[in-house]
Specification:
The protein is an alpha+beta fold. It has helices at 15-27, 67-80, 122-131, 142-147, and strands at 2-10, 32-37, 41-43, 54-63, 95-100, 106-107, 112-113, 136-137, 140-141, 156-157. The protein contains four helices and ten strands. The radius of gyration is 15 Å and the shape is globular.
Length: 159
């Protein structure tokens, strides 16, 4: 069984409910077990800023699937929950990204692990830190990466 960390987010529709449904659909996948889910955070948009705020979280899973097969399952869940890809970094009903695995490194046209923007996105690192507070990424603690990001203070935990 391999461990993967996923980033989940939504900024259209009932954001929290959609994230909870996505986690449920992941866990209902026979080869996937959801181990932990971070708290949800309201976060400003990243990359394309003229859109509504997001709700983001992180999920750890254990699976017998490869990263590529897990990605395919995540994309199927996105479609099932109404995701339509209009533009890069645009508004969306759901986004599920594989961001890190201690068990798999991958560089294909479809999947790069660790995610290429992992250390540049506070909306990914803050919830990921809830799941793995002592995580080392590229030789540095996760808190070091967060300390260098300008938007960390704009992320607010949803209660």
């Amino acid at each position: 069984m391999a461990k993967f960390y996923l980033s989940i987010g939504a900024n259209l529709g009932n954001r929290e409910e959609t994230l909870k449904r996505a986690v449920g659909l992941l866990d209902a996948t026979p080869e996937v077990t959801v181990k932990t889910v971070s708290p949800f955070y309201e976060t400003p948009p990243w990359g394309k800023e003229d859109q509504p705020p997001f709700i983001n979280g992180a999920v750890s899973v254990e699976t017998s699937l490869t990263g590529q097969k897990l990605l395919e399952r995540c994309l199927a869940i996105e479609r099932q929950l109404g995701r339509v890809r209009h533009e890069k970094w645009g508004a969306r009903t759901i986004d599920i990204d594989l961001v890190y695995s201690p068990d798999e490194v991958c560089r294909t046209p479809e999947l790069t692990l660790p995610h290429p923007y992992l250390t540049q996105r506070a909306f990914v690192l803050v919830p990921l830190r809830d799941l793995v507070p002592d995580l080392i990424l590229f030789g540095r603690p996760i808190d070091d990466w967060l300390a260098q990001l300008p938007d960390t203070d704009a992320i607010r935990r949803k209660d």
